[in-house]
Amino acid sequence: MVYITSWDEFVERSAQLFRADPDSTRYVMKYRHCDGKLVLKVTDNKECLKFKTDQAQDAKKMEKLNNIFFTLMSRGPDADVSKLQGKNRQKHNQGKEGEGNNSFVGC
Amino acid sequence: MVLLQPDPFLNELTSMFEHSTEKGTVWVTLKRSSLKSKVQRNKMAAAGEPLEYRCLIRATNGKKTISTSVGPKDHQRFQASYATILKAHMTSLKKRERKDKKKVPGADKKEGGSKKPKRA
């Protein structure tokens, strides 16, 4: 079983795997409360990527990944997930363009 | 295998999490599916009809399995509720304490904590 140590690499490769074969790729999550462990698996029945953790911060990251997968799966592999993935890096630039700058003008 | 509507599915999922706190596991699987058999799919492809895909979500605690399917219109709402359930139940994961009470210089320097060196 291929356990990936870097979260970003896991996300990147899972998205690639899904886009390459959307019909047979599945995303599995296993949670054991008694052990405090979370394991994520993405496989297309040929290749398998896994990620395991016991950290609460990874649960938050997993929620973002869930969003990505939900969007990809219900809308199709061509759905735009760049907004979801890029959230970590560019919080202020992306998103609501209509609102403009958050900082107040004219002090 | 019980196929439910998204809302009852979420309720059942919640109770699954609640019942497996002492012992047991919860598995949740996400997969894209058109929910049609291969024959139907081939027919639709031949007729030129666009195939409608949905996201199939399955959950099990090893004994009972429940499932639901979510389309593009309801997936936003479902994922919000789903995220809430997960956040509420994944409480046994460790929280990384960046701000350590013990002053251990040099131990956590890699993580770039908010330590201000106090020099009298």
What are the salient characteristics of this protein?
heterodimer; A: 107 residues; alpha+beta; Signal recognition particle alu RNA binding heterodimer, srp9/1; 3-stranded antiparallel β-sheet; globular; B: 120 residues; 4-stranded mixed β-sheet; elongated
Give me the secondary-structure topology.
The complex is a heterodimer of chains A (107) and B (120).
Chain A (H helix, E strand, L loop, with lengths): L6 H14 L5 E7 L4 E7 L4 E6 L2 H20 L6 H4 L22
Antiparallel strand pairs in A: 1-2, 2-3
Helix pairs in contact in A: 1-2
Chain B lengths: L1 E3 L1 H14 L6 E8 L4 H10 L6 E7 L4 E6 L4 H15 L31
Give the CATH class of the domain at 2-75 in chain A: Alpha Beta
Estimated helix fraction of chain A? 25-40%
Give the amount of beta strand of chain A, in percent: 15-25%
Q: Tell me the distance between the termini of chain B.
A: 68 Å
What class, by secondary structure content of chain A? alpha+beta
Distance between the termini of chain A: 58 Å
The main pleated sheet of chain A reads as: 3 strands, antiparallel
CATH H-level superfamily of the domain at 2-75 in chain A: Signal recognition particle alu RNA binding heterodimer, srp9/1
Biased composition (Basic residues) (chain B): 92-102
Region (Disordered) (chain B): 90-120
Keywords (chain B): Cytoplasm, Ribonucleoprotein, RNA-binding, Signal recognition particle
Biased composition (Basic and acidic residues) (chain B): 103-114
